[in-house]
Amino acid sequence: MPHFLTRHMKRARITLVTLSLLLSSLAVAHHGKKYFVTGSHEVSDPGAWHVLLSTEYKPRLDQQNIGIEPGILYGISKSMDVEFHSHHSNENGIFHLEAIAVESRLGLFGNYVEDEDNIAERDHESHFGMTLLVEFEKAFGHEDNVEGRFIVGGDVAATSYALNLIWQRSLEKSGSQGVGFALGLKRNLVSVIGIGIEVDGGFDNIEDFRWTPGIYISASEKLDLKIGASFGIRGLPGDQVVRTSLVLGF
Prior knowledge:
The chain is mainly beta. The chain has one domain (about 30-250): Porin. About 10% of the residues lie in helices and about 55% in strands. The chain is built from one helix and twelve strands; from the N terminus they run H-E-E-E-E-E-E-E-E-E-E-E-E. It has a twelve-stranded antiparallel β-barrel. Strand 7 and strand 8 (about 175-190) form a beta hairpin. The chain is globular, with a radius of gyration of 20 Å. About 25% of the residues are buried. Mean pLDDT is about 85; it is low at about 15-30 and about 115-125.
């Protein structure tokens, strides 16, 4: 074999070994950020930090068609975590801050500790849990809001599911409120790749809902990437959204 081919093959082996060691060195940690618009019932591991980054792109809108939501998630205990995030959007090519928010999840019942390590092998096992999520949002340019979610979810073999009952209320004088739902279903195809579908909407007009198919990639327990798109039944320009979501653990 020519010397230059041998040299390149050695470099390739070194690169592969380095990447394998890097991924395997990431300690196991769970975050419970399994879906796009549906809250999952799992609570983040105590003491674990995660950096979150979600993006939205609305191709049919000319103004405010890009949204960015960075955040930080921390596990306080086995049954409670807290998250801080902000909402940013573009207007005339300039990004501005729309809102800042804090949310917390509290495990109520059952198994709310995420366990996807051997989910594909658990053909005859399942787990089920209930969680309460509360979010307070301080807005800039529109009304402050509070949101509560009662979340039920679990796993059956390689399939995960979650159901959210959602209550939202404005903290301003209008006091407007709404009740809605979100449903997520995810199926692991292989150990690191899954596909899923989510549906969300409001009970005031049950036929006016949105569906979000997606691809879910878990390179390791510390790195998750989701890519998907939302489509509204009405077909309005703002109902079509291309979504990405990245979770990076420490």
